[in-house]
């Protein structure tokens, strides 16, 4: 039976230097515990999160980003006490994992835990992903599991914005994504040497690229970008119920007890982190 408060031990199997200040950790678990599925009551779906802990350094939420069915992977930026400590760990070291928690992206097989956030317009198979900065992390599992989660005929278009090409995540995978039918469009904030693509905020891509038709939109990134992205989506005719946004803010306990992640009457850790726009747009402070 799934225990919300039980911390399981994971061993670091591999560490990859990703972009400056960011590392990708591959984790393994004792067969007595769990691998990707954790257990039958708690399969991880794209967009959900786990709580990672180190004794003496705290606990924080992270979005798994591994390929479906493979070892758990976490992409972590060194930015605080816990994450800086993670960056000096080595293969073989152990950490604590609790979860998974929350409601992820509305995809095939996802178990929506609250009737308040039921998926609408499931007949729309195509997907527009709009992400900025680290916002690509919670969507990597979905991209790598495109056929499983969306179906072979579904089209995925990604609008990804970053400050500089060197800060773009998973760059070594872009070619394989495109071979799998993903339409990847990139933009950087300012002109830089050897960059021949789009220059401007991620919303600039709406002006220079044809947007995929008959699609839902998944949005993830810095909160400051959400209003501008929503304006573009509405201009292109996306209905409120076809837009989903991920909020990962101030989550401390992961189970709705500490109340740090409250948005109006909603808890990001329990009713999110993914919310449908029509159900959050009128909540003060949400966007």
UniProtKB/TrEMBL annotation:
GO terms for biological process: pyrimidine nucleotide biosynthetic process. InterPro entries: Cyt_c3_hydrogenase_gsu, Dihydroorotate_DH_ele_sf, Dihydroorotate_DH_Fe-S-bd, FAD-bd_FR_type, FNR_nucleotide-bd, OxRdtase_FAD/NAD-bd, PyrK_electron_transfer, Riboflavin_synthase-like_b-brl. Its cofactor is [2Fe-2S] cluster. Residues 5-107 form the FAD-binding FR-type domain. Binds 1 [2Fe-2S] cluster per subunit. One of its GO terms (molecular function) is flavin adenine dinucleotide binding. [2Fe-2S] cluster binds at residues 253, 258, 261, 269. The keyword Iron applies. Transmembrane segments: none annotated. It holds the Pfam family DHODB_Fe-S_bind. The keyword Chaperone does not apply. Keywords: 2Fe-2S, Electron transport, FAD, Flavoprotein, Iron, Iron-sulfur, Metal-binding, Transport. This is FAD-binding FR-type domain-containing protein.
